[in-house]
Fold these 4 entries.
Entry 1:
Amino acid sequence: MNPPVRTIGRTQDPIGSLKSFLEGEEKERQRLSRELHDGIGQYLIAIKMKLESLLYSDPSDMKEQIKRIKDDFDQTVEEVRRISNNLKPSVLEAFGIVYALRNLCVETSDRTGIKVGLFFKGNLESLDMTIKTYLFRIAQEALNNVVRHSEATMVDLRLDRKLDDVYFSISDNGIGFTTHNVDAAAGHGMNNMRDRVKLLNGTIDIKSAPDKGTLIMIKIPAF
């Protein structure tokens, strides 16, 4: 017999729902801890080291080094903004999943020069808010990975609801990587996406190869 599937937004099993909620909260804390450590933490360490190196620098190079430190501060501020938006995507609550994703794609394209396409189909706005929030966060994580690691010039997001399932794919034309190393690729943010997909009782499949780009395919139940 197949194990029972946890449903979102239903209260038929209060104890099971509470357990799932607590497990989800703990997963989110772990994910946030990783983002703070791998993102903001690393930026601050780099800034600290550069500031300390100023004590021993040639005064003629001081101006250029201060400029680089300023750039690091700008990146840190951007990382704080990204994490803050992850915690509460207000645009999603106000305007819905399609508008929020479109806005995210336009913002990413304007900021990076990467051509970002969005394709959607089906009744997406009637999805549970938990599903829409996690889909939005997965998209944020995936685009952030593309910007940081892929060297891609194009990326496509496709979101399609078919009957009882939602299909979400992210593909890019970047440098790719060997998939046997993906379990150790915390720097690529794959763990964060996998955690979120798991919390939605979904599946995630990652296909990539050097110089062949990357394709991430996600399937989750739409209830």
Note: Residues 13-87 form one domain.
Entry 2:
Amino acid sequence: MGTLTHPALAHPSRDQIQPLHLIASGLESEGPVVLCSKNGNFNDLASLAECMRASMLLPGIAGPVVRVPNVGEPMCDALLYEQVPYRSALVGGATHGLVLRSRPDGIGTLAKQSVLERMMLRRFWRRKNRLPAIHGMMKQQRHRIR
């Protein structure tokens, strides 16, 4: 069996032509964070896997927040600050984008939170990570309104 590698890592010239960008939520900056090899966030499979983990970590469900060495702040899934990362793509110079929506126009995204969900939010954001501002945002579902 061969070693598993990301094409960008196996062929650095490809990464210069079409670099991989991952979006995560910065929990101290309270905004989206772009992770890519150009920024020095990953240069091997282990660091790429850690960046991918940061970009898809569901808060309170899939483990503790992630700290990528070159970023310096805790991170989790992009759902908090940029659910559809087209804004980061535009800022990064993208000229074309494709967004696949899972809901038609007019369908609300707000839902009544269960007691268990409220307890989990409080435990994860306030007590464990000491991030009361993010707890308030999640409690008021402002991440869904965006």
Note: The CA atoms of residues 109 and 144 lie 6 Å apart.
Entry 3:
Amino acid sequence: MSDDDSFRLSRRKALTALGTVGVASAGAGLGTSAYFNDTETLDNNSLTAGQLDLAVEYATDVDQEQNDEEPVTGTVNGNPGAYSYAISDVKPGDQGKLAFCPTIVDNPAWLYVGTKDGLVDKEGGKTEPEKDVDDTPGGELSKKIQVRVSYADDVKTNHDGGDNDSDDDIKCTNKTKIFRGTLKELFAQIEDGYLLDGNREKSGRQPYPASGDHEDQTGPCLCMKWWVPTGVGNVIQTDGVEFDFQFTALQERHNGSPENPFSSSSTSTNSST
């Protein structure tokens, strides 16, 4: 083999080697080439827990002729909160009203009314006139007081100082009656909890609507009128009765079949008494 052949062979080998490097380089270039891309960022994301805050506005009055005072109004919003409606010297012919307007902030809720301590009749002793008509132990006042309970769209108060004007002192508008009977019978209905209807326009029990704040009352109010019939007589002399109402709200969302909060197994309630 001549020197020229040796040179040509060596050059061919060299070209082949360069070609191999070129392929390797091309392969490396494909491996590092970039895809099209873009990035967008959504800032300031957060999750905030809502609230379920129950408050109950109330208005009460009494008409006992000699005790026809202005309606008492206020709001119960505590944990617990309370308001006492105390009347003494109740006689046949006396009457009065209690109105409750619940508001629930921030979420719709199932609203129950019930009682914490129930209704208790008390016998304050027997006068001679009562002994002549009543020989049973215990008081009879709750069985003689008549009550009527209604839903109402709104409650307004007024007082002009006239006689026998308790119907004018507290006005309940667009009423729908839901109960009529004695005070004792009413508490038999609510002692285990009674689910209120938040929308009378729809069939079945509906949750109470949410309000933006406690000044924005959107669900129905409850109006209760009580009276002692004039024919009751001496059987109620010295008797007394004590009772309480309790309102409890449970969230409606994800809770289509709420557990009655007045059952012994209930937990997690928001209530005003």
Note: The longest strand covers residues 53-63.
Entry 4:
Amino acid sequence: MPVNKDIPICVTGATGFIASHIVEQLLAEGYKVNGTVRDLNKKSSFQHLEALPGAEENLKLFAASLLDEGSFDEALAGCQVVLHTASPYVLTVNDPQKDLVDPAVKGTLNVLRSCQKAKVEQVVLTSSVAAVTDSPVPGHQYTENDWNTESNLGRNPYYYSKVLAEKAAWNFVKKLPDDEKFKLVSINPFVVIGPSHIQAMNPSNLSIKQILDGTFGALVDLAWGFVDVRDVARAHILAFEKETSEGRYICCNQTVPMREVVDFLRQKYPNHALPVKDFSGPWGTTLVKALSYFKPSGTGQYLRTNLARHPIMVNDKIKNELGLVFTDVWKSIEDTAADLVAKGHDKPSPAGAAAH
């Protein structure tokens, strides 16, 4: 059924990195938007949304919490479409069940119960490639048919939370009575990069930041499946605008090895502390894996499960069915770096400049 622009679209977790871009694009296209935030008294957390063009006329904000059942009812009332983006994103936590799994799974189910009550017609769920694979098998071409079966509370628990949340969503819709069913589509982005609407550092841009600020003391054998945040936002909108959309959509533009990212950024930022030592060979990978046990648990697990494993993501479905056109990956990387530098997240090092 075509979407009526006079009926508001709800975006949960509206202040998030991806969600803020979704809200911006919806408003630009003339949609009315109901956005949920954690606390309406913390104006600083959502003032960037209120400053967006069209926000004064077409944006309404509501307080809602992932773990409070029924807290999304008011925001969803009268909505035809819900874009559920709200979920915690952090690699290292003290209590994976409490800090990651419960908010992701219970929060998703709370939102879907509110969708059921509100009789919404479509839900677009922000999932992740983390629900597709934990540790990419070299040479394997990943599609929407792949599921991550390796993660658990002790191994990449963030990934595990994304698997459980997405599966919970599909199971919820499957069990609904026929007269209460709504359409569910999931968008599964990989490493989302791009300019942020807020000053605070966004964890999704961490790989670019750590190359710029000297955190990576050496080149290592990592490769990232990048996708521009503006493309991810566009994918969410296309997912409900295209009546033929269905199932899951891997949202990944291109896999880029760390060496290529460093070479590109060195041309743009020669005075930054970009890595020059080369630990990308087999002996370096062995050494980095050994040293990873001295890193925070989430970071260490990520290194051990991703070093020397360059992911191959097949993005044919999202291009062919949704018509998504990806931004050039080097523009995405350049825009991300420029945004990090403009916001002071880069910390250029004079010592690093001398080393080059």
Note: Residues 9-195+226-252+312-327 form a domain with the Rossmann fold fold (CATH 3.40.50.720).
